[in-house]
Design brief:
Length: 391
């Protein structure tokens, strides 16, 4: 007997991009103290008030099967949030609640891609993107972006590879680069989708973490509401990463079919988790801004640490909880630098190569530890890079 090629080919036969992270975790398990700047996990836990709402719901009996599309209360709350932020009329039938944003990405591509279809994504990319496309039976095709344009995908680059494609996956604010797609970029994306008849799948899980500019959802652009699926999540906005609750927003008929998919796969999200998410959204933007504030502050601290030297350069971080650092002056690629830094300073960062070809020679730093420890670790990284550059 053999396993299916679909599941054995999820990583494309290579690394899943998490090798340095796994090595750091093995070092920690063996007793070595490692400063982890790898994954997008807040240093704070979920708000006690949200946990109290979750506990009250569970103890109140909402522990059985919840409605597969999501509870009416949460679907309505998500729809109202999206409508308020985009100006696009949105109701609960536009919303499917999913077990986190990752499940939403998978479901969106199941909905739009047939076996063997070509699905586009932007490089650099979040590490799961190509594997998600392969898992649904699609053929991933990258659109290479450049640090020279702030890693913003250009119309011509999309059009050049769009030929037989059926979908385009974008992420703004972007993980790993921190790029926030501006109006000109998104107009080009929308034009490319309409010119080449592409579904647009927009990963907007970092929409509350914008430091420069403003978040623009492409669903609100002219001609895009009927061809756009927006993926969102409570993970980053409310520090609810482990609760696994997210959503897909799209046209009514598409969401209807995706509910059929959920019935045959996840069978919904725990009701008490959904009640907690609805409570969290009801706290408004002040609660979201409080969760985002440490990353805004550390982004400023990052620029201060890097000022006055040219060995390590930051890609302009306009949003999200990460900063991409160009370390090519050391003579190492991202993977080599990340492994050397882990050995020499016990600091774990993600190699740029984990996120694609365009991020080679960079590392991604997660701004997810307290300010003093973060500044200390970043200064050690800079000093280590300087020592390599002068060898």
């Amino acid at each position: 007997m053999e396993l299916s090629s679909r599941i054995t080919n999820i990583t494309g036969g290579g690394s899943d991009g998490w090798d340095v992270f796994y090595r750091a975790r093995r070092m920690i398990a063996a007793g070595t103290q490692v400063t982890e700047l790898t994954i997008g996990e807040h240093e704070i836990t979920t708000s006690p008030a949200i946990l109290q709402a979750m506990d009250a719901s569970a103890r109140g009996g909402h522990t059985g099967y919840a409605m597969v599309p999501g509870t009416d209360a949460l679907r309505q709350a998500v729809a109202a949030r999206i409508a308020a932020r985009t100006g696009v009329p949105t109701d609960m039938d536009n919303i499917l609640i999913t077990p986190g944003g990752q499940a939403g990405l998978f479901a969106a591509h199941i909905a739009t891609c047939n076996q063997g279809d070509t699905a586009l994504y932007c490089d650099p990319y979040y590490t799961t993107y190509p594997g998600t496309l392969r898992a649904v039976g699609a053929i991933p095709r990258a659109i290479i972006t450049s640090p020279d344009t702030g890693f913003q995908p250009q119309y011509d680059a999309i059009a050049a590879v769009a030929g037989d494609a059926v979908s385009l996956l974008i992420n703004t604010p972007n993980n790993p680069t921190g790029a926030v797609y501006g109006a000109q970029t998104l107009d080009g994306i929308a034009r490319a989708c309409q010119d080449h008849d592409l579904w647009l799948i927009s990963d907007e899980v970092y929409d509350t973490q914008v430091w420069d500019g403003a978040h623009i959802s492409p669903r609100g652009l002219a001609g895009m509401v009927d061809r756009t699926l927006v993926v969102g999540s409570m993970s980053k906005s409310h520090a609810m990463t482990g609760s696994r609750v997210g959503w897909v927003c799209g046209p009514h008929d598409v969401i209807g079919h995706m509910i059929d998919l959920a019935t045959h796969t996840t069978y919904g999200v725990a009701g008490f988790v959904q009640d907690a998410a609805a409570f969290a959204l009801a706290q408004g933007t002040d609660a979201e801004e409080a969760v985002a504030a440490p990353f805004r502050r550390r982004r400023a601290l990052t620029l201060e640490v890097l000022r006055g030297q040219n060995t390590v350069r930051a890609v302009p971080a306009q949003g999200a909880m990460y900063v991409m650092l160009d370390i090519r002056s050391t003579g190492l690629d991202g993977e080599g630098f990340a492994n050397a830094l882990l050995d020499a300073e016990q600091i774990a960062v993600m190699p740029g190569e984990s996120f694609g070809q365009a991020a080679a020679g960079h590392v991604r730093v997660a701004m997810t530890i307290d300010d003093d420890a973060y500044v200390g670790a970043l200064q050690k990284l800079v000093n280590f890079a300087k020592s390599l550059a002068t060898q």
